[in-house]
Specification:
It is built from five helices and four strands. It is α+β, with helices and mostly antiparallel strands. It has one domain: 60s Ribosomal Protein L30, Chain: A.
Length: 106
């Protein structure tokens, strides 16, 4: 649901400098206490997924899109994970990915 909206929001977050792209960048941002949400590609390698989950136990993680799609959304090569570094972008992306309702809109 809302794939175009999710893609656009990831692009906006990238333009705003609020995305750490790829597993290594995500872990680095986590160590600095900056990660608000982790978006994992549905085709990410199981070992990569398990490593990220074990390294970032307090971070909300959602699966969405393929590695190719995640990369395209932010204008880069395929990425297995995108760390969102802003509470506002994280909240909107979580709502779009999980299909939650828009605040107050019907």
């Amino acid at each position: 649901m809302g794939n175009d909206k999710v893609s656009a929001m990831l692009g906006f977050a990238q333009k705003a400098g609020k995305i750490a792209a790829g597993p290594n960048a995500a872990v680095s941002a986590y160590k600095k206490g900056k990660v608000k949400l982790l978006v994992l590609a549905t085709d990410a390698a199981p070992a990569s997924r398990e490593e990220l989950i074990s390294l970032m136990p307090q971070v909300r993680m959602l699966e969405w899109g393929t590695k190719t799609l995640l990369g395209l959304c932010i204008g880069k090569s395929p990425r297995a994970a995108l760390a969102v570094l802003d509470d506002g972008f994280a909240a909107v992306l979580e709502r779009l990915i999980t299909g939650g309702s828009d605040s107050g809109k019907e």
